[in-house]
Design a protein that fits this description.
Elements: H1 12-36, H2 43-71, E1 79-86, E2 89-96, H3 102-115, E3 135-142, H4 145-157, E4 162-168, E5 174-183, H5 190-198, E6 204-207
Antiparallel strand pairs: 1-2, 3-5, 3-6, 4-5
Helix pairs in contact: 1-2, 1-4
């Protein structure tokens, strides 16, 4: 039986393009809610719409600003978005890297700090900003990079924070795993898993295999 072997990294530009889609989705949500707001007869609904419009606009601005910072940083590093539920509120974090060890993650963080992409004060301490996220929600597998990109693009239009990782095998074959999110344990994945099931997907929590693949793959 063939087994997975490590691969090299996808380009930063491709991952930035995917993150840009999230900013577009936030702007689209903002505009849709703004259009509904004048016709809402209930005052409480108007207030709620206004809050969500502001939150979507703020999230879009933050994502766009962060992407501008990341565009020139560390070519070849995977950037992706993962949700985190904190006391019933969902926050979306921009993560860098799908790395094999904590040391590799700390090294990547230090390069980002040196380049100005991360505030040095936020990265104070040996393991600050380094998170061990062993699990992800597997949404499917593809034979080719093109098919994987098409699948991810389709999921992004449905506001699913998906990204592909390449899993080469010892027999020379290559599969693309389509993931959503990245989590330290099953409990952390619960909110996103339920959201994906509501939209008709069948996510499966698994250890996260694969790595971003180089452009020639």
């Amino acid at each position: 039986m063939s087994t997975p072997v490590p691969s090299s990294h996808i380009t930063i530009e491709e991952n930035v393009e995917r993150l840009k889609r999230f900013a577009w989705l936030e702007r689209a949500a903002m505009r849709t809610l703004a259009g509904w707001l004048p016709g809402a007869p209930e005052w409480d609904a108007k207030n709620a719409f206004g809050l969500h419009v502001w939150e979507s606009a703020d999230a879009a601005n933050i994502l766009r600003g962060r992407l501008r910072e990341l565009r020139a940083q560390l070519p070849g590093v995977l950037y992706y978005i993962t949700p985190e539920d904190v006391q019933g509120v969902t926050y979306y974090k921009v993560m860098a890297g799908a790395l094999p060890s904590a040391d590799a993650a700390a090294e990547t963080r230090d390069v980002l700090v040196a380049s100005g992409a991360i505030d040095a004060q936020q990265a104070a301490g040996d393991w600050s900003l380094v998170q061990e996220l062993r699990y992800a929600l597997l949404l499917g597998e593809m034979d080719t990079r093109g098919a994987a990109n098409a699948a991810v693009d389709s999921l992004l239009t449905r506001q699913v924070p998906a990204y592909p990782l390449a899993v080469p095998y010892t027999d020379g074959g290559l599969r693309w795993y389509i993931y959503a999110g990245a989590f330290p344990d099953s409990a952390a994945a619960g909110t996103l898993s339920e959201q994906l099931r509501v939209v008709g997907l069948n996510p499966r929590l698994t250890p996260r295999f694969g790595s971003p693949a180089s452009p020639e793959l």
